[in-house]
Amino acid sequence: MAGLKIAILASDAPAAQAALRRLRQRYGSVLPAKAEVIVALGGDGFMLNTLHRFMDREIPVYGMSRGAVGFLMNEYREAGLLKRLRSAQRVMLSPLRMIATRANGQVREVLAINEVSLLRQTRQAAKIRITVDGTVRMVELICDGLIVATPAGSTAYNLSAHGPIIPIGAGALALTPISAFRPRRWRGALLPSTSRVTLDILDQDKRPVSAVADHTEVRNVVRVEVGETHDHRFFLLYDPEHNFEERILSEQFTQ
Questions:
Q1: Which of 20, 136, 181, 248 could form a disulfide with 142 if both were Cys (CB 3.0 to 4.6 A apart)?
Q2: Do 212 and 117 contact (CB within 8 A), yes or no?
Q3: Is 31 contained in some domain?
Q4: Are residues 224 and 148 in the same domain?
Q5: From start to end of the chain, where are the E strands?
Q6: According to the model, what pLDDT value does residue 1 have?
Q7: Could you report the per-residue pLDDT of 130-175, keeping only the tens digit for each?
Q8: Does residue 104 share a domain with residue 25?
Q9: Is residue 44 annotated as part of the catalytic site, yes or no?
Q10: Domain total for the chain?
Q11: 145 with 85, same domain?
């Protein structure tokens, strides 16, 4: 690992910026375009931004928690960084591709590592028709919104909406309603990761809906198509004692 070219980046948080200065002084830092590994200092939001920013390079990212939330991050320690990078375990994530069609006919295509969320834009609940692999599975869901989550994102917004936690490698996606009104007892579904989900917005003029892929929002959508893509891959690095798969498994037993 001697001579490894690392780029150290940080969020705007004061703690992350202070760590950035210390680590760059201790280990040096090259430009991201020349790096073999990126070290990201911040929270989960900064990790997602970093992965999206460099997705065309498929460069591994090693995160250390210097933010409010750090499920995707390793523990922050300044000593032994190169040794930790040497022994880190690599996790590959396949993102979701969201194809969102707006009311004006504009089409946006965005990738999501954690989830695609549909959210009502006004005081009125959304009405959504759910189609999976060409078969209509729910004619009308009345709700505040709907989430399609990857295993990596199943512990994020999906979990807050009472969706299931999905182990990495399970080959599944979570389809989770947000405050479902009708059918009131519907709690969502687990779908094969190969599924193609089409979400049509009903009564869109009176009940507008926005679609969010991680941190990218598309407003006034009429149709959203979601499916896993293998055209892009994201690589995260984790300390063996903070194995990502083990962390997701352990989260299911958290009291």
A1: 181
A2: yes
A3: yes
A4: yes
A5: 6-10, 37-42, 61-65, 89-93, 96-102, 107-112, 115-120, 126-132, 135-143, 145-149, 172-178, 189-192, 196-202, 209-213, 216-218, 221-228, 234-238
A6: 43
A7: 999 999 999 999 999 999 999 989 988 999 999 999 988 889 999 9
A8: no
A9: yes
A10: 2
A11: no
Q: What is the pLDDT of residues 128-139, one digit of tens each?
A: 999 999 999 999
Catalytic residue among 12, 44, 205, 231: 44
Domain hosting 154: range is 96-228
Residues paired with residue 148 on neighbouring β-strands, in sequence order: 116, 175
- Are residue 103 and residue 152 in the same domain, yes or no? yes
Q: How far apart are CA 155 and CA 157, in angstroms?
A: 7
48 and 122 part of one domain: no
Q: Does residue 4 carry a pLDDT above 70?
A: yes
CB atoms within 10 A of CB 255: 2
* 160 and 205 inside one domain: yes
Query: What is the average pLDDT value for the chain, to the nearest integer?
Result: 92
